[in-house]
Amino acid sequence: MLKRSSKILRSHQNGATLIEILISILLLSLGMMAVAGMQAYSIAAQKNAVYRSVASTMANELAELIRVNPAGLNAGNYNVAFMSQANPGAPNLTACPGVADEDVAPAEYPFCNTAANLAAYDITSFQRRVRSGLPLGGVQVVANVAVAPARSTADIWITWQEPGILVAAEGNADNCSAAARALATLPRCFYMRVQL
Predict the structure, then answer these.
(1) DSSP string spanning 77-143?
(2) How far apart are CA 63 and CA 77, in angstroms?
(3) pLDDT (tens digit, 0 to 9) for every residue of the chain, 196 residues total?
(4) What is the pTM of this model?
């Protein structure tokens, strides 16, 4: 009787092991997809950290250029909106008046001897560095001119485009200006305020 009941149980369990294996493979594959997604996010987050570091360094560089030329800032010569957009190309480097020799640095004294000329050179050369250092990199500067004895300030935004996976996961346009938020593809931004 015992032998007969075990035969009946075995006949009802035919194929049960195959179903268990298929379910375990399905669960394992879902786990592997989650691990792959986390790895892709981790790599994108590392790139974002590098871009933020580069943007921070560039913002500090531009702040120092502005501090050297306060008259240019007060005259509004550093105001610029070179935004992150598809294929705007690098700006043409503005040479100071009187520079004819390509071997002479375009901002070399005595050619860049006015605040406006120096600011024009600073901004165009900086725009080229931002565009080459960050993906679709851009810069926006807004001068806030104050009457003495108050000190003028400048708002600086460095913008770039993030990897798509971070945009989907975190959103974007953090710390961005209104002009950057109006772009079709929202950028990431690093913001800094400089006081003279």
Answers:
(1) TT-EEE---SS--PPPPPPPTT---TTS-TT-TTTS-SHHHHHHHHHHHHHHHHHHHSTT-EEEEEE
(2) 14
(3) 555 555 555 556 666 678 888 888 888 888 888 887 777 777 777 888 888 899 999 999 999 999 989 898 999 899 988 876 655 555 555 566 655 555 445 555 556 678 888 888 888 888 888 988 898 888 999 998 888 778 889 999 998 887 665 555 555 556 788 888 777 777 888 999 988 8
(4) 0.69
